[in-house]
Specification:
This protein is an alpha/beta fold. It is 44% helix and 17% strand.
Length: 398
């Protein structure tokens, strides 16, 4: 009995360090993964991989169907007016086109007078120096309207400071090597994005930064999300011939009465923007910027930015056993009795290929296919590579 106890204690003593290190690794990985997932770039998602997974989900009937029934999209691409363009010294240099502000004011007047809409996201830029005769009346209308937010960019000066209380950021990050849209950043320093501004007005909650962490409603959340898009594209007409979006001038202002427009916008999120030229490449094809904003706001309203503690617990177990397995030489799966006793040459040929990278890849695929959850595995992949290199160095060190 004494020898058995000593044997067990000896084994525990040998296993103690790997277990302790593995627990520490889980803690470090969860922290670094969280910090990285709050970044809009370099989070490691393979867009081609997600494109194929979305295709597969669609074929299997697992793809999320978004019918956009809670939104009204208004296209301003065909409603332009020419204005005089001046250089930095105030000298005329020619003409430039902007959204027709007379038509835009007419549309807002109708929406405001009927007051049936849920919220208006005005994805139209009002830049200083691009002026029109209707600016004063238009800006006054926007300033005094309820439940409306106006788009601006971080490097653009507003045409009129009276809009400042209704303005939010409409930017997404890209580089010369990462030009496709992947992640949406909600809080830019202290400035909210379009969807976050609307989310606060609609729910009373917002994202708050505390150093490297973010909270919403008193709970841990992410400031950056890998947005999920349906497999089907977004064009002017849907699969059944119904309108996906309405042209501001030729459709709404010409063919709809105030009452009809009120009915069309009733209890809906109204997105006004360029649905034709302002498009961005995503893993699910080209999407108008206004539609991307819709999905970002929808994600917030569904609480997808909140940290899932169930997912964290699951990842903790995965990280722990991967870390622990790296302390054992050879393939850990070979220790399973069924596998160890198997005489299948094919099985034993493929076993060495089943490393931690394969396990992490399978987890990403399963979470996305079955639970529509997206996670970044770049941090654990790099971390475990470093751990494996260090352990191999110690084993071969003379």
């Amino acid at each position: 009995m004494e020898k058995m106890v000593q044997s067990i204690m000896g084994r525990l003593s040998k296993a103690g360090k790997p277990i302790l290190v593995s627990f520490l690794n889980v803690f470090v990985l969860l922290i670094f993964s969280y910090v990285l997932n709050n970044q809009p770039l370099f989070t490691g998602e393979d867009l081609n991989q997600y494109a194929w997974m979305e295709f597969l989900k669609n074929k299997m009937g697992l793809s999320e169907q978004v019918d956009y029934s809670d939104a009204l999209f208004v296209n301003v691409s065909y409603d332009k007016q020419l204005i005089e363009k001046k250089d930095e010294f105030g000298m005329p240099v020619g003409n430039i086109d902007i959204t027709d502000r007379t038509k835009l004011l007419a549309l807002l007047n109708i929406l405001d007078s009927t007051n049936q809409y849920r919220y208006i996201i005005l994805d139209v830029r009002f830049e200083k120096g691009l002026d029109s005769e209707m600016d004063s009346a238009l800006f006054s209308k926007i300033k005094n309207m309820k439940r409306i937010v106006v788009a601006n960019h971080l490097d653009v000066e507003l045409a009129d400071s009276c809009l400042s209380a209704k303005v939010a950021i409409s930017d997404y990050a890209s580089t010369i090597v990462a030009t496709n849209f992947a992640r949406y950043k909600f809080l830019h320093g202290k400035q909210p994005s379009l969807p976050l501004f609307a989310y606060k007005d609609l729910t009373g909650k917002t994202i708050t930064k505390h150093g490297l962490i973010y909270s919403c409603g008193g709970s841990l959340c992410y400031n950056s999300l890998f947005l999920k898009f349906p497999y089907n594209g977004f064009s002017e007409y849907g699969g059944n011939g119904e309108k996906s979006y309405y042209n501001m001038g030729s459709d709404l202002l010409s063919n709809y009465s105030g009452q009809d427009l009120s009915t069309l916008a009733k209890n809906k999120l109204v997105f006004i923007g360029d649905m034709v030229e302002d498009v961005h490449d995503t893993y699910s094809g080209l999407k108008p910027g206004t539609v991307i904003t819709y999905h970002a706001l929808r994600s917030l309203l569904l609480g997808e930015h909140m940290v899932s503690y169930t997912l964290l617990f699951f990842l903790s177990i995965v990280f722990f056993f991967i870390s622990l397995s790296l302390f054992k030489e050879g393939v850990i799966i070979k220790r399973i009795p069924f596998v160890r006793k198997s005489h299948s040459k094919l099985l034993h040929f493929f076993l060495p290929l089943i490393g931690y990278t394969f396990v992490l890849f399978v987890i990403v695929v399963v979470l996305n296919l079955l639970f529509n959850v997206t996670i970044s595995i770049i941090v654990p992949s790099i971390y475990f590579t470093i751990q494996k290199t260090i352990l191999n160095f110690k084993r071969t060190k003379i």
